[in-house]
């Protein structure tokens, strides 16, 4: 039997992509909820947690290093150990007087390790599976990635909420949550050390006569693509509204009514947004993928752009009415998340279309880096803007900020057959 097929993909593909999602969820979402619980201002939360995007923005710059040194298997397993250690460190420093900056520094190391793990794990996936199996397991990959998102924003947030109440100490509660996460990652490290196959093709890639020229040549080829300005405009503006909204959802849902929020407890947030919301997001993503496979990306684009952006009006309503019924709030969040999951499929497929060609992997990494840049920069100043405008006017502004995405959708060029099965 071929060495790459010696172990069933079911043994390692689900666990690998579950592990890939966890540190991203910690950096992007869990950190926002934790810092809100620990009394950090919205301005500081939005600015500093947005900076955690940076490793994902610039990961294309060091992706060749992963190719040139060691195997993808070794990179993947060792980086899981580094992530586990950094999660222990976050849990340990939360009791320090300067916990905010120290924990952010540790999370930056975790984010850097996680972004590098993405490169090695995605590369290993292509080496460890036959081509027909790669296609067959794409759905499994995305499902377990979503399940990790659900675990990170649902049960773990609920646990933090219950522990904070029972222990009377939010710092202690979040320390325990990070130790639980570290335990999960240590288990992933041990499991993957045991079950990951050792494909014959998994070896350091010999650099050509001029690796630096090859590296810059790959970037040059991307930026010489036809209609590159439309491509950049679409990728950078597609999430302009959402990039600002995402950083303020947890503060808005958790702030008391007199501050303009909805006054949810941490546990209620975990159920409403982290559980019901993420399930709706997953269902929306599956529905979006199915529709594109039937009709193609071009015919679905406008419907999907509306699906992503129109539900932002949910937050305009919630900030004006401030309903206290948790079931009503959960229903509105489910609508917003379904629309986002449904419509975001268009962006993922658009990036796949743009990346097609000789440097497919590197160009897809550049696309995801640009998308992360489009999330990071507006997110950095969204907290200050919200504190200046108040929640009601801030969410109206978010809806206005979606307009460039509609303009770019009208201009962008897509092959009518792309995306159809």
Automatic annotation (TrEMBL):
<keyword id="KW-0472">Membrane</keyword>
<feature type="transmembrane region" description="Helical">
    <location>
        <begin position="45"/>
        <end position="63"/>
    </location>
</feature>
<feature type="transmembrane region" description="Helical">
    <location>
        <begin position="270"/>
        <end position="293"/>
    </location>
</feature>
<dbReference type="InterPro" id="IPR004752">
    <property type="entry name" value="AmpG_permease/AT-1"/>
</dbReference>
<feature type="transmembrane region" description="Helical">
    <location>
        <begin position="394"/>
        <end position="412"/>
    </location>
</feature>
<feature type="transmembrane region" description="Helical">
    <location>
        <begin position="362"/>
        <end position="382"/>
    </location>
</feature>
<protein>
    <submittedName>
        <fullName>MFS transporter</fullName>
    </submittedName>
</protein>
<keyword id="KW-1133">Transmembrane helix</keyword>
<feature type="transmembrane region" description="Helical">
    <location>
        <begin position="326"/>
        <end position="350"/>
    </location>
</feature>
<dbReference type="GO" id="GO:0016020">
    <property type="term" value="C:membrane"/>
</dbReference>
<keyword id="KW-0812">Transmembrane</keyword>
<feature type="transmembrane region" description="Helical">
    <location>
        <begin position="300"/>
        <end position="320"/>
    </location>
</feature>
<keyword id="KW-0813">Transport</keyword>
<feature type="transmembrane region" description="Helical">
    <location>
        <begin position="144"/>
        <end position="165"/>
    </location>
</feature>
<dbReference type="InterPro" id="IPR011701">
    <property type="entry name" value="MFS"/>
</dbReference>
<feature type="transmembrane region" description="Helical">
    <location>
        <begin position="12"/>
        <end position="33"/>
    </location>
</feature>
<dbReference type="Pfam" id="PF07690">
    <property type="entry name" value="MFS_1"/>
</dbReference>
<feature type="transmembrane region" description="Helical">
    <location>
        <begin position="171"/>
        <end position="191"/>
    </location>
</feature>
<dbReference type="InterPro" id="IPR036259">
    <property type="entry name" value="MFS_trans_sf"/>
</dbReference>
<dbReference type="GO" id="GO:0022857">
    <property type="term" value="F:transmembrane transporter activity"/>
</dbReference>
């Amino acid at each position: 039997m071929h060495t790459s097929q010696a172990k069933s993909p079911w043994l390692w593909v689900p666990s690998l992509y579950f592990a890939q999602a966890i540190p991203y969820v910690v950096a992007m979402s869990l950190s926002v909820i934790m810092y809100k619980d620990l009394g950090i201002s919205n301005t500081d939360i939005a600015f500093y947690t947005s900076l955690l995007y940076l490793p994902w923005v610039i990961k294309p710059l060091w992706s060749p290093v992963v190719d040139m040194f060691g195997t993808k298997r070794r990179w993947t397993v060792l980086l899981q150990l580094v992530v586990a250690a950094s999660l222990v460190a976050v849990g340990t420093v939360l009791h320090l007087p300067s916990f905010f900056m120290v924990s952010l520094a540790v999370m930056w190391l975790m984010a850097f390790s996680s972004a590098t793990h993405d490169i090695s794990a995605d590369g290993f996936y292509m080496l460890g599976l036959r081509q027909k199996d790669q296609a067959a397991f794409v759905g499994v990959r995305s499902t377990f990635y979503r399940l990790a998102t659900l675990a990170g924003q649902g049960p773990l947030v609920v646990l933090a909420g219950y522990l904070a109440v029972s222990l009377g100490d939010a710092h202690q509660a979040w320390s325990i949550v990070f130790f639980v996460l570290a335990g999960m990652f240590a288990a992933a490290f041990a499991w993957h050390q045991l079950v990951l196959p050792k494909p014959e093709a998994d070896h350091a890639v010999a650099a050509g006569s001029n690796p630096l020229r090859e590296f810059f040549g790959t970037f040059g080829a991307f930026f010489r693509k036809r209609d590159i300005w439309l491509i950049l405009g679409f990728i950078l503006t597609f999430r302009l509204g959402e990039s600002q909204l995402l950083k303020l959802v947890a503060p808005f849902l958790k702030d008391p009514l007199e501050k303009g929020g909805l006054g949810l407890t941490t546990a209620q947030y975990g159920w409403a947004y982290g559980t019901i919301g993420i399930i709706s997001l997953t269902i929306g993503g599956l529905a979006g993928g199915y529709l594109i496979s039937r009709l193609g990306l071009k015919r679905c684009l406008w419907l999907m752009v509306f699906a992503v952006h129109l539900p932002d009006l949910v937050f305009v309503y919630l900030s004006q009415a401030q309903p206290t019924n948790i079931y009503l709030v959960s229903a509105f969040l489910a609508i917003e998340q379904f629309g986002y999951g449904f419509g975001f499929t268009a962006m993922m497929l658009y990036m796949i279309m743009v990346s097609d060609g000789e440097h497919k992997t590197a160009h897809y990494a550049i696309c995801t880096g640009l998308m992360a840049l489009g999330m990071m920069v507006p997110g950095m100043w969204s907290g200050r803007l919200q504190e200046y405008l108040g929640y009601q006017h801030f969410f109206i502004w978010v809806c206005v900020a979606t307009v460039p995405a509609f303009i770019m959708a009208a201009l962008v060029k897509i092959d009518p057959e792309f995306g159809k099965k």
